[in-house]
User: Fold this.
Amino acid sequence: MLNSGPNIKPRRTPSPSSTETLSPGSSHPFQIEKLVAGGFSLGRLNGQVVLCAGGIPGESVEVEILSRRKGVSQGKILQVQDPAESRVVPPCPVVGRCGGCQLQHVQYEEQLSQKRLILEDTLRRIGKIFDVPIFPVIPSPRPYGYRQVLRMGIGDGPDGLFLGFFESGTQQLLPVDTCFLVDDKMRSVIDAVRSSLRSLVIDGMNLESVEIRWSQLEEVGLLVFRGRAVTKEHVERLMNVCSEIPNIKGWIYERADAPEHDSRHRLRHQPIVRGADHVWEAFRGLRLKMGYRSFMQANWNVFQLLGKMVGEWLGYLKGQRILELYAGTGPLGLSLASQGAHVTCVEGDPFAIHDARESLRINEITGCRVRISSVESYLMTVKSGAYDVILLDPPRAGLNPKVVDRLGVLQVPRLFYLSCDAPSLARDIKSLCEKGYTIQRMQPFDMFPQTAHLETLVELTLSAPEPVDGD
Assistant:
């Protein structure tokens, strides 16, 4: 049976009193007002905020209250009584259970509109930012089949090892047959890995996950396994059974041990590598190395569009002095340097820096230097007037307050902020505006269709100082 999003059940009689407290287990008629960060549907019952998954603004639904925390109730849609015109049937049979996709039930053009509204709402609520010029979201060329990096958990079930994703809101591994966010070639790799793992039901294997990294340029991929194999022979057997999988150029095993005092952290041991430990990918006319330990964009087609937009916004590049912070393997910085800019790329991950230096060599790029350092430390060495532009691409948590303070001191004329998280973006932009910057424009990119995530490029310029009387 096709899954239409929320778990549809027969209509229940709503609670008789509209003024009673929303207690867990009670059900109520509910009007969805809007979507918020995370893709949750928001509405109000008896003046109280209720969040649930799987709705669309304007829909009338019946919701069951699951829990209440910090003044917000969590609910579950039982029945969609008045479906929106943009509601569609998701292709994935585990949507709503798997924690990966939040918007498969929404027609794609409407997803783009809703994501822009979520961004605007977040900027207003957190950043107190109003009337900002936000361009329409640039869509992904592929609403499905776009991911080039995918990690799946490995579980041990009655029929042997299986592949899956964590069930939404839990650490419980949910067996899945495939993922519609990757294309047919990667899905065939998933099928082959699953088939190979079925022959590995032996004590001591202790596999935790497998990551597939795929190169559109080479049309080949890497398999990166992580686990706690008892002996090297276990790893050799794993690689032997997976060695015949087509279109794979490298097989890597990383051991991950959980220290007794803190199971959240992993100690990585020397990896075992058979074949290649990297792929090559094309970006803006360059050939870039992507090692298995370096961050790699999951939607390379959208990242290409983003890179083009950065270049267009910067304008004439020759001679521009650009500092790229949180540079990773340096695709943006290397591309700008290849067009005549003087670029410094700063990154704290030594593996990413190693890849960036190899890409510099292969592409014979001059005018670009890469530095391994924390952003906080490196900025303390930068002198005022040293750069015309700073390009920021921080992790989801956003900027460290020390970085914001230092940017306020340096007063670089232009900042380009690339964000993957609207709440941290709103917080940081508010702080930067307090340091003297003005938002010029925002361009969102749909890097992850079917999910609530949104990539946003923001240009900020240093405001002109207020004129002094007599000037």
